[in-house]
Design goal:
The protein is an alpha+beta fold. The protein has helices at residues 2-27, 79-97, 161-180, 270-283, and strands at residues 33-39, 42-52, 56-64, 70-76, 112-120, 123-131, 139-148, 151-159, 193-196, 199-202, 211-217, 221-229, 238-248, 253-256, 288-299. Helix content is 26%, strand content 41%.
């Protein structure tokens, strides 16, 4: 008899649970909500619909940060180049006393300024699941991912036009003028080069402009976990939702554009190299990106 009641109780419990599930299932997919978001990931728009009524919502959308530029100046220390100029000018001064090399004189650089521009490149498709532990409560746990470009920040550096024109004139003329007055100067002695990690790069003197390009890159797929308050599909026409969490994008890395030539010599500008290393050492220690968002939500039907 005891087994009979236990079996009957199990059937009733199972039937009740099944009925509740079917009720939830039948109500799922019957609603569609929208959201307009302002967050640390920029501006976003999305659509939401319930997978299991009042408990689980699927949120799909797109976030982007409007284009803006941050500028920072880097200085190529031209001490090595200025030293060769000093040698050639000195030898040329002696040569002028002997009646020749009257046309040889070069101005010192005392550094070449490169204006660097940093442009965020953040546009991502988001796929999120929002779980509401209590159907009557607005508290939720969110998990999912963003999928977008690997490039987090686009980088571009450009030398001052007048200084770059002066540098190109020196690069193509100083070795020959130096030879006229008995000083040895090679092309490699006049290269503007810097190093990142184990790779060396140079600003190509054959370019009409002194430019270099690169990017800070992260993972293209970024898992997300967050906590929030408010429903993506509100019970009223319009509501608000707040959420905070973190995106894991992996260790950022600096990638120099393929158009920037490699360099195999030893004439490295330590000042620029140190500046780049200092910045990237700080950036590489941040494998996550914080998310704080405010969303205006509503339901379409």
């Amino acid at each position: 008899m005891r087994k009979f009641f236990l079996a009957a109780f199990a059937v009733v419990l199972g039937t009740t649970a099944s009925a509740q599930y079917m009720k939830n299932y039948n109500e799922a997919f019957k609603h569609l909500g929208y959201g307009i978001e302002v967050s640390t990931m920029g501006i976003g728009v999305d659509l939401s619909y319930p997978l299991v009524t009042d408990y689980l919502e699927l949120n799909v959308g797109y976030n982007f940060i409007p284009k803006f530029t941050v500028k920072k100046d880097f200085d190529f220390n031209t001490g090595t180049i200025d030293n060769y100029i000093r040698q050639v000018n000195s030898a040329a001064a002696q040569a002028r006393q002997a009646g020749y090399a009257n046309d040889i004189y070069y101005e010192y650089f005392n550094g070449i300024n490169v204006n660097a521009k940093f442009k965020p490149n953040m546009g991502n498709v988001k796929i999120l699941l929002k779980y509401y532990p209590m159907s009557y409560n607005n508290f939720h746990i969110t998990a999912g991912m963003m999928i977008g470009s690997k490039k987090l920040i686009d980088l571009e550096g450009k030398a001052d036009d007048a200084t770059w024109a002066k540098y190109r004139t020196l690069y193509y003329n100083l070795p020959a003028d130096a030879a006229r007055v008995g000083v040895t100067v090679s092309d490699d002695d006049l290269i503007l080069a810097y190093q990142y990690k184990d790779d060396k790069y140079k600003i190509d003197p054959s370019q009409s402009e002194g430019r270099l390009k690169g990017s800070v890159e992260v993972n293209s797929v970024k898992p997300y976990l967050g906590l929030g308050w408010g429903r993506s599909i509100p019970k009223t026409a319009v509501s608000f939702q707040f959420e905070f969490g973190v995106w894991y994008h992996g260790k950022p890395k600096l990638v120099i554009d393929e158009s920037t030539p490699r360099y195999n010599g030893n004439n490295i500008d330590a000042d620029v190299t140190k500046d780049v290393d200092d910045i990237m050492d700080k950036v590489e220690k941040i494998p996550v990106y914080p998310q704080i968002s405010f969303r205006l939500t509503g339901h379409l039907f």
